[in-house]
Amino acid sequence: MLFKLAGTYTPEARDKTIKQFMATGGMPLKGISMVSGYHNLDGTGGFSILDTTDSAALANHALDWNGLIKIEITGIMDDETISSVLPKHFG
User: Fold this and answer.
1) How many domains would you assign to the chain?
2) Half-sphere exposure of 60 toward its Cβ, with a 13 Å CA cutoff?
3) Burial readout 58-69 (b: 16 or more C-beta within 10 A, e: otherwise)
4) How far is 47 from 81, CA to CA, in rounded Å?
5) What is the DSSP letter of 69?
6) 90 vs 85: CA distance, rounded Å
7) Which domain holds residue 30?
8) Which of 16, 24, 53, 91 has its CA 20 to 30 A from that of 30?
9) What is the pLDDT of residues 31-84, one digit of tens each?
10) Cα 14 vs. chain centroid, distance in angstroms?
């Protein structure tokens, strides 16, 4: 399943967050595939698209970062998948 993991950080946490990102590359733990990652132009955070069926791995990844940044995890789907759901409700 696909998830969007978005994170924002305060100016006070900026340097420590950037150093942790540089040390790890922001890569998720085993059991999670990184589909893509993006960064806010203003330097306040960003988001990743992750693919996993392992909720424990996703929780562990979030715990590696949530002491530094505010994290929001949202389940997402692509256009093809939602297009198979919509006709039942709007067809």
Assistant:
1) 1
2) 11
3) beebbeebeebb
4) 21
5) S
6) 9
7) 2-90
8) 16
9) 999 999 999 999 899 999 999 999 999 999 999 899 899 999 999 999 999 999
10) 18
